[in-house]
Amino acid sequence: MFFTTIQNRLRRLNSGAYNELATTLGYRSNKAKIAFDKLVNAKDLASFLRVGHYDLLYNSTKLLIGLARAFKLDENALKIEINKAQKHNDEIEKFQKCYIFIDTHFVRKNEPIFALAMCECERRIWLGKYANKLVYKSNDEILAFIKKLINHHYFINKGTSKFCGKIYAYQVNLPTFSCALTPNGESLKTPISESFAYLRI
User: Fold this and answer.
1) Side-chain half-sphere of 96: how many Cα atoms within 13 Å?
2) What is the number of alpha carbons within 13 Å of residue 196 lying toward its C-beta?
3) Which residues contact 11 (CB under 8 A, 6 or more apart)?
4) What pLDDT does residue 145 have?
5) Is 198 helix (H, G, I), strand (E, B) or coil?
């Protein structure tokens, strides 16, 4: 609520009030415009904090507090709103490195390591882009979503990984649990062994 209020206040400023606000906050260059535009164009508070802002004067949180003070808004209420948004981002972050490994029983023959490393993305489904659909869900709800995801992946790829061959199963790796599933979503008793190909520079 307070974040939206700050956005709307910034949008309604005329050039004189805009420059006065920038001066009040200590800006002496076009950095105020960069900071204000980033805030105004943010989808919501959580995304603004997640993308982040930093200049020589303010980070994201300090900029918001400074604007709240300039607009005479309730700073404590804004801090509560910021804390809630940050907790949401913390939940989102838990899923950023989670993935589903695609098991194809691939065995390297004479493929160059460079080619294998470049194709690693074909062997994993990264779950970060689905984080908003996974946060605040029970393990059963998450598993139901994962089963639909791998079933769709198997269908659109016609059961085959472009580089590694036929898909046999999926190994799910999440913050609260891991499991191995068939393409139909049936549980496997034994976890799937994973392999990695990477280049060290």
Assistant:
1) 7
2) 3
3) 40
4) 97
5) coil
